[in-house]
Fold this protein.
Amino acid sequence: MSKGELYMEFLKEEGYMPRFDEDGDIVFKSEGVSYLLFASEDDREYFRLALPFFWKIEDAEERRRVLAAAAQVNAELKVVKIYPVDDNTWASIELLFHDPEQFKPIFKRALRVLRHGAERFAEIMRTPVQ
């Protein structure tokens, strides 16, 4: 079974309504928010769950604040990575598993940590600059 099929089957069993995007990755929603689960077959041990486009970067000054807030969240929280992609901000959880099926017991926690990382980032960004 391919990683994409494995992920798709799991998400359906968990009650999500996943679909493949044009790149062959899996898009699904949780609590009204869209997530990506990367299904690349070229590295079967690599697991990447992402929250794309959650914070728009409006200008150069905001980009500097995004980088600082991302560094703070990355230092504070386990396994979550926050980073700019063009004029948007993404968050992801990236892990390695010997067997691709090993993601199943940690999936819900990974989703919670990812959401928490994005919320912490937004909290920092909404704090007035001194």
In short: The beta strands are 19-20, 26-30, 33-37, 46-56, 80-85, 88-96.
